[in-house]
Amino acid sequence: MLLWYNSRNCESEGGGKKMKAKREYGDSVDGERDLKRQRVVDSPSSPHEEPLVPYNDDEDDERRALNHIGSREEDGRRVENEEEDDDDEDDPYGLGSTLGRSNRQVEVRRDCPYLDTVNRQVLDFDFEKFCSVSLSNLNVYACLVCGKYYQGRGKKSHAYTHSLEAGHHVYINLRTEKVYCLPDGYEINDPSLDDIRHVLYPRFSREQLEQLDKNKQWSRALDGSDYLPGMVGLNNIQKTDFVNVTIQSLMRVTPLRNFFLIPENYQHCRSQLVHRFGELTRKIWHARNFKGQVSPHEFLQAVMKASKKRFRIGVQCEPVEFMSWLLNTLHADLRTSKKSSSIIHKCFQGELEVVKETQSKAISEKKESDGEQNGALKITDGQIENNNVAAETYRMPFLMLGLDLPEPPLFKDVMEKNIIPQVPLFNILKKFDGEMVTTTVRPPARMRYRVTKLPQYLILHMRRFTKNNFFREKNPTLVNFPVKNLELKDYIPLPAPTKENEKLRTKYDLIANVVHDGKPDEGFYRVFVQRKSEELWYEMQDLHVSETLPQMVALSEAYMQIYEQQQ
């Protein structure tokens, strides 16, 4: 009986202490664990007497990772699970300071005996930052010995387990860029690891931006291959060449490139697509890469999510559709208000004057009831009515201009071959002279277009593909265009400058030319781009990058072009 009474007393005393500890720590989930830790630290027999001994409190790392740092309500008070992180001042998930967080100190050392095991050949930071075991993106570390990603660095974490099983001891946090030695747990502060940090998150200064278009120096990868910053190949994951040619074309637009090379320009934006596009831009123009190509894997994942799988890996799409969607989405995500502009509109936006002529039954019935003659003219609310035709004039902005190609011949010549027609670019540009009529089927109307404002960068799209109920056709017509000094004022009427002393800039130079080769459903895309520092042209098809002659640029089936306005 005495023993039973004592055990009941012990249990009640223990329970009372636990209830007191829970109240003391604000009813947090980690209260009991923190209390145990305090008892171990305060105990005179504890071996942990040094003030800088690393203590890892990740006993429930897997459970908290699966809970996705959730928050819940207990007794009317909001309690949030803390993220196992090395820096208490950083709060990337916006959780704020949590109750029961311990003030831990991590030893920082400059000397580490395992630095010689770092293998830069296997490091690849182009892929998504997910743990290779738990598939979680929270608190992920990269093993600098084998290149794999693991979560956490506590005693029950996957990175800690990997360090014991494989004997790999050097890890870098993919968010904070801090390097640790596991299982010892101390932080490594060594300047020899700065090149890895620069590859993980490339950085550019304002002075470096000014020198990008003047730099003629090649860079060398770890495998000994040479590459040009800004002219690196992009990996084709699976039928993603339409994304690659679009990205390579946009990288030639200097203001757009400079904007995305400085993350502070869009740090207010919460769009994942904007930040992934900025990361990809910095990797393409980085001069200290470990390899001579870049994989746009993270950017493609952001594209699939933002477009709701309209553009996805493994499905071929047209670059003009992707270009239009990308520019409009980036503009919508970057602007701070509905009326504000963005770097997208500053580069590509022009203005058209549209005259739309439509047949109106209501107008004809009204005329008959009023006894008017068919040949009479009537102007109402900016619309001109003539012979039951209502002409409406309005202005609309544009980011690219679509050009219609003449129909190819249906019959073969005497040599039993189809003649591939050729057409000058100026002939198809007449669509925008304000006089040429373009007929639309749905809705039936006659349209006339006139350019009233020229953009700094002009995007032209040659409509080569047409769809019907049975198959998809491609127009093989070749377009003859100038590589330099495209003078628009000689072929289409342009408005006078708004200011007296302002000179109207109407000359353009080609900077990118997207080409389609092969059959409509089985072909592939490649792009010709210009390197401004040497005014040389390069042909780029996924990972393949080679120098070419300017004459070869004009001999291809042009699909989409970007022209730069001469200043």
UniProtKB/TrEMBL annotation:
Residues 232-566 form the USP domain. Its main location: nucleus. Residues 1-102 are annotated as: Disordered. Keywords: Metal-binding, mRNA processing, mRNA splicing, Nucleus, Spliceosome, Zinc, Zinc-finger. Residues 81-92 have a biased composition (Acidic residues). Pfam families: UCH (PF00443), zf-UBP (PF02148). GO terms for cellular component: spliceosomal complex. GO terms for molecular function: cysteine-type deubiquitinase activity; zinc ion binding. Belongs to the peptidase C19 family. This is U4/U6.U5 tri-snRNP-associated protein 2-like. It comes from Gossypium stocksii. The lineage of its organism: Eukaryota, Viridiplantae, Streptophyta, Embryophyta, Tracheophyta.
